[in-house]
Amino acid sequence: MKKVITLIVVSVALLTTSCVSKKKYLALESDLQNTRSTLQKTTVEKEELETKFAKIEARVADYNSKINSLTESNNEKMVMVDDLVISNNTKEKMRQTLSQVNSDKLQNATSLKDSMNIAVSHNLKNSLDDSLKEDDDISIDVDNTVVMISISDKMLFNSGSYRVSNKANDVLEKLAKVINSEPSLDVMIEGHTDPRTINTPALEDNWDLSVKRATSITRLLQKKYNVDPAKLIASGRSSYQPLVENDSEENMAVNRRTRIVLLPNLDKFFSMLSSN
Predict the structure, then answer these.
(1) Which of 99, 141, 149, 151 measures 20 to 30 Å from 77, CA to CA?
(2) What's the CA gap between 200 and 65, in Å, rounded?
(3) Which one has a higher pLDDT value, 257 or 53?
(4) Pairwise CA distance, residues 160 & 108, whole Å
(5) For residues 275 and 219, is the Cβ–Cβ distance under 8 A?
(6) Per-residue pLDDT at 248 exceeds 60
């Protein structure tokens, strides 16, 4: 009898233990499902927040772009000054350039055009190599926006010849650097002679000599120093624009020259200023 009772007790205990474990299992499984559901919901909410944040960032970037565009548009807005139409950017660049110019040179500037001429001349002259400015066989003059560089023929040619000598390489290389560095320039090369008559199988007269000297320099600037030929103008002046009277050997030597005339295209010049 005792054995039967003991067996019943053990069976009940085992059954009770089995029931409790199943309840805990079901509870844990329910918790797991809830956790998974919460995690999935949190993931979806996180993705939604990230999407919203990205949209906000895009809107902010768009607003910033519009603000910058309005600022640039205002800077590029064209204004009329002294019958000239220029942008605010260009006007500011002009002021920056003129702030570097000697005040004495600005005293006679009564209009924007005067100031413009001074600014162009200042930029061009500053771009010239110091050795060009200091050479006795080279003279530099500025008239309004035009820079004129006169080079003695003895630096460029042999007497009565239009073939460019090797002595010219150094000065022409320096001039080419100036020309190539300034997109706003057109360049006229003028040949000048003294009045003494010349007539050879290759040269009919001084007109012929002056033109051929100008074209020789022009070709060299194009072919050897890569100057854009569209910027170049070749011109012969013969002996009809002397600097001094042709009454001595020394004076005739002065009049025999090649003049490089730098002619800024003002539209290009101001476009260049505005883009810097």
Answers:
(1) 99
(2) 70
(3) 257
(4) 44
(5) no
(6) yes
CA-nearest of 135, 233, 118, 222 to 180 is 222
**What distance in Å separates the CA atoms of residue 37 and residue 233, rounded to the nearest whole number?**
83
- Of 104, 103, 145, residue with least CA distance to 124: 145
Give this prediction's pTM: 0.57
Whose structure tokens read 């350039």?
Answer: 97
226, 176 Cβ separation under 8 angstroms: yes
Helix, strand or coil, per DSSP, at residue 108 = coil
Element (H, E) at 271: helix 266-275
Q: What is the dihedral of CA 101, 267, 70, 112, to 10 degrees?
A: 40
Give every CB contact of residue 124 below 8 A, 6+ residues apart in sequence: 142, 147, 178, 182, 185, 262, 264
Tokens of 22: 């199943």
Strands ordered across the beta sheet of 232-236: 138-143, 146-152, 257-264, 185-192, 232-236
Structure confidence by residue, pLDDT tens digits, 152-162: 888 899 888 89
Question: Across 118-132, 206-220, 251-265, which has the greatest mean pLDDT?
Answer: 206-220
- Report whether 180 contacts 230 (CB < 8 A): no
Whether 232 has a pLDDT exceeding 60, the answer reads yes
C-beta separation of 187 from 260 below 8 A: yes
Q: Checking DSSP bridges between strand 257-264 and strand 146-152, what pairing results, if any?
A: antiparallel
Residue 225: CA atoms inside 13 Å, Cβ hemisphere, count? Answer: 21
In 3D space, the residue among 223, 233, 210 whose CA is nearest the CA of residue 156 turns out to be: 210
